[in-house]
Design a protein that fits this description.
The chain is mainly beta and 99 residues long. It contains no helices and seven strands. It starts with a strand and ends in a 6-residue tail after the last strand.
């Protein structure tokens, strides 16, 4: 797993490269939830999907053959941008590390 720094901002986007692939992630604060857009090599995988802590961001195993992401947090803690980089860390999980 590789940690990816998040800023304590309600809306942010970043690009992450690994294993010859380029990921583009956009995190959006909306309606007291955090939503995510995920692009792999400029192809949209998910758009506007709600995310939860300690759960795969790409929800479908058939779509995570190139890896996945998870926001690690305290048990029962909701994803909250105010906790990014404090108690909530984003990790990229390589295909070899996926169960």
């Amino acid at each position: 797993m590789r940690s990816i720094s998040l800023q304590a901002l309600p809306n942010q986007a970043f690009t992450f490269s690994y294993g010859g692939n380029t990921w583009r992630i956009r995190l959006i604060s909306a309606f007291n939830r955090m939503l995510v857009d995920v692009y792999l090599n400029d192809e949209a995988l998910i758009l506007g999907s709600p995310i939860s802590t300690n759960c795969r961001i790409i929800p479908y195993p058939s779509m995570d053959r190139d890896g996945n992401f998870i926001i690690d947090a305290m048990p029962d803690e909701d994803v909250n941008w105010r906790n990014f980089g404090v108690s909530q860390i984003l990790y990229y999980i390589t295909p070899d590390e996926l169960p």
